Amino acid sequence: MRLDEYVDIEQNKRAERRRLAKNRSYDIVEYLDDFQDRFESTVQGDSLYGGVSPSIFVGTSNYPHVSTGVLSPVGHNDDVSQFITSDTWYNEDISISDVFERRASLLNSTTTRPVTNVAETWDGDGFLGTQREIAIADHPVTVEIGLVNRPNIDFDVNPADVSTPVGPRARAESATLSENPHVPRAVEKTISDDDWNAEGAITYLYRRDFDIYDINTILSAGALGRTDQRRLVPTRWSITAVDDVIGRYLRGRIRTNQDINSVEIHRESFLGNAFWVILAPGEWEYELVEMKAPGSIWNPKPEAGTAITTDWEGREGRTKYVSETAGAYHAARLGVLEHLAQRGRRAKALILRHISADYWAPVGVWQVRETVRDTFDDTPAISETMHEAIDGVCEHLPISSARLHRASTIAAGRQATFDTFT
User: Fold this and answer.
1) Is 330 left (phi over 0), alpha (psi -120 to 50) or beta?
2) Where are the domains of the chain?
3) What integer best gives the mean pLDDT of the chain?
4) pTM for the whole structure
5) How many CB atoms lie within 10 A of CB 107?
């Protein structure tokens, strides 16, 4: 079968992306010069006054004593919503440089706190209390942040070495609200319930149509779970935890649904990542196969060839930590399970992710989640068998069908089963 007759491969955009990527370092360095000027005109003395904070950030270093902070866009109080990581970034079709600029505009005003017993310290610890209010509010709030000293704006970025996009950090001694934020009733309910575990609270908010990005921020601030177990959760961990919890909830919902009727091939690409989602009739089974092109962020040595990593789960899910594909595994799985739950069907799912050299800096697993979600917006290609589907997709991948069969649990072990649906 010729998949390009059914799926838009977007070949014409690749050359332009490579050209822009070559100039990435110089564009970033120029942007940092502009940012420093904006910072100097915004910060007064040793404090940042009247900043509008859209979110928080909790780090992982030195856990369980972590750096926890309030994020404030410098010089952008009128358009603060664009600095919140969400599905709108995908809908805007932003570039990797756009992501860098938005994150580099966020001042991270931090302090160090132990992760435990946060519920006991919210009233007595003004910084943690303010951080929690920012996380649970339904809109960005105005804060006044007292800085210990002026931050050193040093991003360690030069034309030869583009770092992960992060903003400047400053030590903070205080943070106070300049307004009374509105907290949704459902969030108030999860906070006031002393006996509700975090997993139940996450599922409750999701079922009430709370945005997944808001849920992981609330979890990160330590505002979910039994009162005596509430703790700060590093942002990176909270994102994966929410994807995993909601994914397991949706997996339970689709378990007894009817199978889909045929083998389907869905595709979408974004920021140098191409995702092929192959769905086939049968009980739930899921695998993510990542192919990392030489020169991409996760495989920087051109002589190494295409690297492959995989993780798999069967009907009952996994019992061990996802070691190869990390947070991308749960983010991609969520998109598939949401689609199947909406259809009222179940299926086996094989996701093939090609990370090209155009992906020159990591932007976060949000792009995985949103791209997989978007693969289902168009009519899929239909294949007679799983074997045929894999062969057809491999014509557009940097590896052979034989190599994929050797690496993939689903491709290697389910061909005969799928052939029975012809």
Assistant:
1) alpha
2) 16-230, 253-419
3) 84
4) 0.88
5) 28
